[in-house]
């Protein structure tokens, strides 16, 4: 097997057991995702083999192709025993971004690269699962069309709706998925003006270029502006052996936090979707379920995940946001990063980690010094004079970030901007929780979506911004043409007032009264920490 030390200095091979002899591995050169994959192998976690193309190539992606195709791809093949583009034993890859600073959902990802008419029979032969192979192929055609060719996602979503007639697409059999794939291939050729690429290397080149190009996408530039991130640092690109969560009843994909990112409570916070791929969860276009579904579908993987979450915290010394896939009952860890959290959660997590002796008091102080004590509480609805006549909620959704917020309905970024200019709080209401809405989320006070998981990238960003966020409201239906929405039996117009209760997931018509309920115990714990460091406390209050 070829040693990773033979790779050029801007390529890095990640594999379990722990990768050795990497050339100066760091977040700056490998990106945060690639560097953390390396650290996950050091922690003994089950990580699929990956090749990291360093941030060095961001501004000249073409320069990476010679070393990737002449050396890097061969190292991947030797590590997996598979051959990229081979008709009998194909290596199928994901192509992911990985900037040195976490930018959830702002950069692109492509899955199932290397699948085509020639390699699909080989994947069927490997797995014995024609349904999965055709499902992966149709996903590739749609995502490649969207990310590489710039085709609208709605083009492919409409074809799914036409075929399924309201049926869950995960219930389609292999012949229906084969039909859907062929429809996608025809749509791609018609709207892109050329056939879908059947050469695996052409696919890979296009995917790598698209992921590097996403560094300069509008939403990525806006995210960096909001968060004051250096525009010149660039992103890495990670080629990783695909593991398939869409192989059937004992498989799936998920995202989790090692602790509750809203409250900081020490409990696993997991979204999981059975018989699915990871983009289904993080894209914001699909609803997901909690850990109980994972425990029922793959109990051994659930046990492994709990142990892996503990290992992550022991290794990284902080609450982690991780992605995983379960293929035929086996857990594979795909990435981890320090989790975005509310100020309340940040303080509780830091103080709990201090008590657990994972960090010292100086580090706990650093992690909490920017947080004011009056932020340590939860905004809750205030009951009126007659609690028995309290308003009934219009519907319920999944709370992704706690708090209570009232505002006027806005169906797009332009509507948010108009309300902001008038000084009116806005609630952004969308079908999907998508990161392309980042500018609108920045201006809005809350986010409500018809679809999407609590751990979707857009929900993660909303939580980071401190926006009350409810996702996956199945009772919500939006009529963009009429600029109205229906929630349960109630029809509302754009600019009507609604209230989101992020504590219990309830949605109300009109404006509610709310108040901050302080967490006095947590405030006392924080004050106790700061009293140990009076000089730093003084700088904090300066």
TrEMBL record:
Residues 426-505 form the PEP-utilising enzyme mobile domain. Keywords: Pyruvate. Transmembrane segments: none annotated. One of its GO terms (molecular function) is pyruvate, phosphate dikinase activity. InterPro entries: ATP_grasp_subdomain_1, PEP-util_enz_mobile_dom, PEP_util_AS, Phosphohistidine_dom_sf, PPDK_AMP/ATP-bd, Pyruvate_phosphate_dikinase. Residues 87-287, 300-352 form the Pyruvate phosphate dikinase AMP/ATP-binding domain. This is Pyruvate, phosphate dikinase. It comes from Acidovorax carolinensis.
